[in-house]
Design a protein that fits this description.
There is one protein chain. The protein is mainly beta. The protein has one domain. Helix content is 12%, strand content 39%. It has two helices and five strands. It has a five-stranded mixed β-sheet with strand order 3-2-1-4-5, with no helix packed on it. A hairpin with a 2-residue loop joins strand 2 and strand 3.
């Protein structure tokens, strides 16, 4: 089996499928419906709307994401 160092080289592009809309959660509770973006050369989330705790209209296509403290500093997302 080959390692990543043997398969990839600097400049290679790895395509990923990212949902148009994601949910930002706090303690497992969805609070924001967002879109990925960039601002000032950094990755960002654009808030589309706030989700009320009793809101049943959370879109089914929204991909659930969780940001860990380490990932926040690196601008990475962890899929849940």
């Amino acid at each position: 089996m080959q390692t990543a160092d043997e398969l990839l080289k600097p400049g290679d592009v790895i395509g990923v499928d990212i949902s148009d809309t994601i949910l930002a959660k706090v303690d497992g509770v969805p609070l924001l419906e967002c879109q990925y973006g960039q601002q000032g050369g950094r990755y960002a989330l654009k808030v589309n709307r706030f989700i009320e705790p009793e809101d049943d209209s959370v879109p089914a296509q929204a991909e659930e994401q969780e940001t860990t403290p380490d990932a926040k500093e690196k601008g990475e997302q962890q899929h849940v």
